[in-house]
Amino acid sequence: MIQVFNEPPSGLQAAPHEPRILAAGHQIGLREVEFTHVSDKAELMLALLRGLALPGAFGHNWDALYDVLTDPGRTPPRLALLLRDYAGFRRRHPHLGRDLEAVLLDAQRHAAQQGRALWLLVEEPDSDPEAW
């Protein structure tokens, strides 16, 4: 398997084994978002707030999330989001998952245009890229 951090970010990607250690070794900031207990948009926004260590003033909406992810003053130039139990979340909440993916992928494209990198890494016990 190609080491994910040796290539530019490309959509949602399976997380490598030991993503925290690899990210640190490549000088990439890593934030983890846990989706296991997310059941609606409000809980999703709280999971993102916690995982991204956002201030309480975070707007709890898609535009605010996009703004945070594309703001060079708030995120490191090389950032990986580790999306934990994401496939399960997508199966439970397909519409919410599609909305979130649209924001994440738009932010990834915008980051690339700025010369920045935003990896979107899916961590699952039995990762199945087809499930995304």
Automatic annotation (TrEMBL):
Occurrences of domain Barstar (barnase inhibitor) (ranges): 31-122
Coiled coil: none
Pfam families with a match to the protein in the record: Barstar
Top-level division of the source organism's lineage: Bacteria
InterPro entries associated with the record: Barstar, Barstar-like_sf
UniProt similarity note: Belongs to the barstar family.
Protein name: Nuclease inhibitor
